[in-house]
User: Fold this.
Amino acid sequence: MARITAGVGCSHVPAIGIAMDTGKTEEEYWKPVFAGFEKSREWMAKAKPDVIFLVYNDHCTAFDSSIIPTFALGCAPEFQPADEGWGPRPVPVVKNHPVLASHIAQSLILDEFDITIMNEMEVDHGLTVPLSVMYGQPEEWPALVIPLAVNVVMYPAPTGNRCYQLGKAIRRAVESFDEDLNVVIFGTGGMSHQLQYKRAGLINPEWDQAFLDRLTSDPVGLSQMPHVEYLREAGSEGVEMVMWHVMRGALDDDVTEVHRHYHVPASNTAVGHIILENKV
Amino acid sequence: MTMKKDYEDIPGTFVFDADRARVGYHLNQFCISLGKAAGRDAFKADPEGYLARYPMSEEQKQAVRDRDWNRMLELGGNIYYTSKLAAFDGINFQNLAGLMTGMGVEPYREMMLNGGRSIEGNRYKSEWEEE
Ligand SMILES: [Fe+2]
Assistant:
């Protein structure tokens, strides 16, 4: 049986990818950002997931304004890193477990989550930056990756509760798959940041830390947070953090926090990262 | 029935909701086309001719010509789209933010290094005198 054993929450700031791709990780500005992922890379080497179920948002790369699916599941055999305006990132192609992906698609729809199925899709920094920070710069990604793109660009994003419930449905889907697979789920985006207009640059570390605390202590309460609180307290782009609830919903109620990293700034953004393990 | 927009009292912020997405559609589609080399080349070769391919309002076109980043947002643009036009001009996300805040690139970078803009005094429009 396939099982979800752990969850990773992780920012996906594009500038972090650029810093890695251009060899700037040792610079004073970037050092503390990457130092917090050293332990994560050790953890990944031990956890050795066969499959990463990666919840992220597309930044108008695979989807422009013409089509805006709320939840889109990648079912293609592989996904090329996209050109986002400065050339594709020099990172490995992302390979799927397409049999598991279509199993999950079918299971989710019958479980009343009417997701969109992507048989062709390019992936942007939202997906590749978390892989980069967690794995470094390998020749090939060590795990297969099932992408789930969530709309958080056009308001409204799905509610925190919907995301949390979707996490539970993903878990049911994974656990009804026969192959023995160790699956780790990633929720990405955030933390507090506002990229636009006159309030750009907003950072709210107290709010961010409270969010990280409540992922372990009060996940259900946290999933009930209304959108306006993210927008007001964590910035207009901070609403991305609803994606972390998908990750949290897929885990046990009771989890162990094994690692946390928080740093300000990376470009315009507060970097947040957490690793949660199911007990046993 | 109209949707109650409980986020409209946040200062210095345009929440890119479905209404703004409708108004800004062609502006955003123009911007996103610059994410690909073919769009960038065509826009570089003939800026006015390329703009004319997108049925934007004259105001939206003028905001593009003026590179008036805030005006684009006021007219339905979204930052993930307008940032492609900025990238076309060689302006990254952080410097674009510096321009939109009116602070300028260096003071903005300095603010971020010092922990960013505080939430205190920045939650409600009523806390901002000019809005
Ligand atoms: Fe994002």
Q: What stands out?
A: The pocket of fe (ii) ion is lined by residues A 12, 57, 59, 126, 189, 240 (CB under 6 Å). Chain A has a mean pLDDT of 97. The beta strands of chain A are 2-10, 51-56, 71-74, 78-79, 94-95, 116-118, 144-150, 181-188, 255-266, 269-278.
